[in-house]
Input
Amino acid sequence: MNEVLRLLLVEDDEDDYLITRDLLAAQNRMRFALDWCAAYAEGLEQIRSRRHDAYLIDYRLGQRTGLELVREAFGSGPRAPVILLTGQDDYEIDLEASALGVADYVTKQALDATGLERAIRYAISHHGALRALARTEERYALATRAANDGIWDWDLASGRIHLSHRWHAILGLDQPREEEQQPDCWFELVHPDDVHRLRSAIDAHLAGESEHLEVECRMRHADQSWLWVLCRGLAMRDHHGTPTRIAGSIADITKRRAAEERLRYDALHDPLTGLPNRTLLMDRLEQSLQRSQRDPQAGCTVLFIDLDRFKLINDSFNHTVGDQLLIAIAARLSEILRPGDTIARLGGDEFTLLLDGMSSGADASAKAQQISEVLERPFLVAGHQLFARASIGICVSSSDMTAGELMRNADIAMYDAKQRGGETHAVFDQAMHRRVLTRLTREGALRQAVEQSLIRVHYQPIVDLASGRIRSLEALARWPAGWEPLSPSEFIPIAEESGLIAPLGRLVLNTALGALMRWRRSGLVADDVSVSVNISRQQLDDPTLPDQILAALRQCEAPPQALLLEITESTLMHEPERIGRIVQEVCERGVGLHLDDFGTGYSSLVALAQFPVRALKIDRGFIPPGEGHDTTNAAIVRSTIALAHSLGLEVVAEGVETELQQRQLTELGCDSGQGYLFARPLSPEQTEELLAGWDVSAYGATGGGRPQA
Ligand code: C2E
Ligand code: MG
Ligand code: MG
Output
């Protein structure tokens, strides 16, 4: 050691000071700078200045003792080594000194130069080692406290385990008095389902099969709840590799596990209703199919549930109401589950019910019936009374069906149920598959036809029965699809269900108004002849319809009186208020309204008086064949005409095919007629020919027979 060590000697006897000084000077192993103070108070002051590397303190300091000085100066422990010097050896003082942390206790008489130097050197080196150890312990304690882990240390030879204060605290326990315990007091707290896993992992690690011990298990907290803890550890081995000790930590990971649990749950459930989502449903379906492969008796059935016209609820109220209704529906559907069944929400207004172990179509139909019944009870949502109806598709598993096919087939069956007007269920079969395929192909082709304006409009005159004059031309859509011509009664429903009716309707409206105005300008028709355009229920769901109609009139420079809208009786009666409001908007401008297919909707005529309806078109089915037998229909037509007239409405007869019919209708007071007798629906070119050659005297009640064309 080359540095100079600063020593402080507190010694009230000057002679002793001189001896000490000389002893230190007499050796040449270490270099010392010695400060001396003779009095207690001065010594205390010097010690507090903290300038010294070691202290030599005499036991006798006048009235006081060196031990009092040490206690007063250092309290919990000396900051630098202290050597107590004493006149005579006293075991009591010796013990007291070591309890105070004094490094050495030496009798002055026994001291020589090397002895003093060695005492100081040992004291400094021990003190340094103790300081280092204290720092390590402090760091270790701090680290484990910061990590918040509980520590365990298991001595394999004695079979005793030390469990730290924190270990107990994590589990809500007080630390027991004895330092070491039986390992069982740990395992007794582990969840019965986890204890075997924990023990095997420890055994495996001790056997050298794993590098670390790392197990997650549940442990019982003092409040009887279960905590998830992460238990980690490492074994210590002797030079034979035999484990002698294993120690480690436990950490409370309950929150992390809960978060993971939540994530797992969220990944498999629909956030709105809390029902299983598609992923979980498919997983259960796969399992169910695997079971039925082992046991062919088992099988399973999928019910695909799609709410009818749910969009309307969302559009009419706000989305919160729609959401609340879906939640309420989910709850009702859950009511009818048997153990093992799954009800899932696939998004939107689609639910799927998986019936595990059910393999009969009849049972599944009964279940579908049950679903319809629970949905039939009204729902009270945000003060509104709402009704839910569903189209349900059913597919029963067969041995060769995959989960994907089962789902697709149930979807097809649902589609079929929807096609038949909804509020019903259908069981999948192969014929249905072919039907749906055809249907989807047609829908694709129709979409193309509408986009490429391949839809044509034909015209059929509506004739005033008294005068024989043409009152209006009904525009009827035609789809000249090359490979398979379809009638409007076939393709209009496709357009209505696929949303294509909106662009198709616009196309017909614009084309018809354009044609009429051309014919008016060229004098082919009089200026009071109008065009009749059919409007579907779906078109009336679109709130911009009135604007579209007015825009079409402007674009074709047509007065509103040039247009008659034909809405079927059942459309109007389905939602009288809403549809009444929409048509009112255009009728106020002068557009006319005719009620199509009248007689099929069984509405009361009086109810119609509140709408701006101008005429009723009596459905073809009610027009008597004219041979005199069908007296019931004749009576219906007669009373309809009488009542309509009394309400100020005109009557148009559809499907007039014979002169006899024409005569009878005229006699009954019917205002106008439309039918093959006058003309079939004709292409624009044929219509122009018809109009050019129109002879009122041929058709008017006053005129003669049919034209000779
Ligand atoms: P609708 O509006 O009742 O049209 C009258 C239907 O009766 C037409 O059938 C017409 O060809 C047919 N018809 C006319 N006179 C006679 C007759 O004397 N005897 C017989 N047996 N039938 C006659 P079409 O053209 O097949 O149209 C069927 C239905 O398709 C229409 O019934 C209408 O509801 C709908 N439709 C046609 N075009 C459109 C359109 O552009 N838009 C909408 N929304 N629907 C349309
Ligand atoms: Mg019509
Ligand atoms: Mg009709």
User: Anything to note?
Assistant: The first strand starts at residue 4 and ends at 10.
